[in-house]
Amino acid sequence: MTIEQALKQRSDSKCELCASDSNLTVHAVAASPDSSAGNCVLLCETCHSQIENPEIADTNHWRCLNDSMWSQVPAVQVLAYRHLTRLTDKTDWAQDLVEMMYMEDDVKEWADKGLVDDNAEKPRDVNGVELKKGDDVTIIKDLPIKGSNNVIKQGTVVRGISLSDDPKLVSGKASGQSMYIIAEYCRKK
Domain PhnA protein N-terminal proteobacterial: where (predicted)? Predict the structure, then answer.
């Protein structure tokens, strides 16, 4: 039985957060011990897109967490807890639900581990847009290359950037050389 089949059987072919039955996809919960069905949830397109892009979240949609937070499935509890925690800045009802929620110690540890990753500082371009692996960026000003007399000219396009451990830096190839570039001197294409 595939993970998707197991999740459909577990959830009666409904989104495990809002109970919608349209456009369902498998979502692996971040920071999970493995990618088995026990660490994945079945989500509708609305829930999945809002989890992947929290900046477009519709707070009224997430009132469904009032029911799903009581699920017996640890992965569903973890997602509900994380999303309610993110909503506490925007709404009072989310804070009330977080305070009522109960999870086993190991499940709570898993949920908190994923929140730390989500709140980590992220590389942002000159306009404050988050940069992600594989993005193409344009250099916004002439940058001297450390250790040489060469300069990366304004307007140079760096394709398929990679992220580094330092959120202020991205790496990519410019003028045929691999190098680190300060993220705030880039503009996402």
Answer: 6-52
